[in-house]
């Protein structure tokens, strides 16, 4: 299956090519025709499956076509996307920016925890697509800054997480502000009774699609966890990269600035590295990637956003220099190694603040991650809980690993989220 077969328009196909996407993911090939056909959709799919593009691409196409047919284009909000967290909201906005680069369709993202002033100013300019977290949306709606009367497509993203985080009442309130006649796309990783009930109430004759949970990919990758102080991560990275088994490594940092800094420090330590992130030109990113693929540089340091669409065969290691706060991101990152049956290794550096993230990750993947206890930079502050010794783990000569045996428990649902 190719994107062309999904009858996508040229401006979108061009953007997908720039992203380096060659074929739609299963959720995309199932969902895109449904959305283009203006039908309601009930999708069981998690972050990491390509679900954002599954709704963003056809929505952009519908809006593009609509705009072309209008004599007097307007900037009313035509599509509303509700998502539970600020991180997801930003990620979705980035996707719309990337896929819609040649469409002229405008999007805007609003979320809580930051001043509303800039968001209010942007809302005044008008937008075709609004991506929002529920609390901030309701606040700004109440203040009269958001008009939802012209919404034609409504996307509810991560519905089960909305429930876990206690946002479901806000979501229901938002829905009461939308026109009854609209297209609704409902995404949830799991279907607890309350979510199934909500889906039933707001969808009209939906097409149902489901894809395999992302957590299964984690089973193929050998994972190790290093507890380390934040200030020692750089030294630990240089230390682990002395292992010749690491032939090529993709190192993940949370920020662009962090990616630059890590690459610089590695080069100083005679490890050939380059950083890629959104602030670099397409040419510079492409060059870094080509060098990395050709083996001219051994380490590529990237943010999650920049690493999108990067497909590197034979990537020996993924290193989480910083632990992602969205557990699915971890699974997606480590899934970049060990492709096509090759053995892959993922190393994660966890400081004190990130321990809660590791807990969420181990719940999602239903495995404990074996801990490397013997390394030169053990954390100072708090004693690390000692897991039971691991059985049948492949050990690198330079590293002693201790941890629990892989849990046989299968993942059947998502963990409760503790924080927004
Ligand atoms: P999502 O499930 O929406 O969080 O997407 C997971 C990741 O997959 C994101 O980094 C996307 O950029 C990437 N992605 C989405 N669709 C494709 C595709 N067709 N080919 C390659 N990567 C993709």
What's the overall average pLDDT, rounded? 86
What name does the CATH topology of the largest domain carry? Answer: Rossmann fold
Measured by DSSP, the beta-strand proportion falls in: 15-25%
**Beta strands, count:** 15
Order of helices and strands: HHEHEHEHEHEHHEHEEHEHEHEHEHEHEE
Class derived from helix and strand content = alpha/beta
Biggest sheet layout: 7 strands, parallel
Rg is: 22 Å
CATH superfamily of the largest domain: P-loop containing nucleotide triphosphate hydrolases
Instruction: Tally the structural domains.
Output: 2
Task: Detail the poorly predicted runs.
Answer: 382-420
In a nutshell, what does this entry contain?
36% of the residues lie in helices and 15% in strands.
What does it look like?
This protein is α/β, with parallel strands linked by helices and 420 residues long. It has 2 domains: 3-211, 3-Layer(aba) Sandwich (Rossmann fold); 221-365, Rossmann fold. It has helices at residues 10-19, 26-36, 51-69, 86-99, 117-125, 134-142, 159-164, 168-176, 193-202, 233-240, 256-268, 282-293, 304-307, 327-334, 355-365; strands at residues 41-44, 79-82, 107-110, 129-132, 153-156, 183-188, 207-210, 221-227, 249-252, 273-276, 299-302, 317-320, 344-350, 371-372, 401-402. The strands form 3 sheets. The chain has a 7-stranded parallel sheet, sandwiched between helices. A 6-stranded parallel sheet has the order 8-13-12-9-11-10. The protein has a two-stranded antiparallel sheet with strand order 14-15. Strand 10 (273-276), helix 12 and strand 11 form a beta-alpha-beta unit. The two termini are 37 Å apart. Residues 382-420 have low confidence and may be disordered. Adenosine monophosphate binds at residues 21, 24-25, 28, 47-53, 308-309, 332. Residues 21, 24-25, 28, 47-53, 308-309, 332 line the site of adenosine monophosphate (AMP).
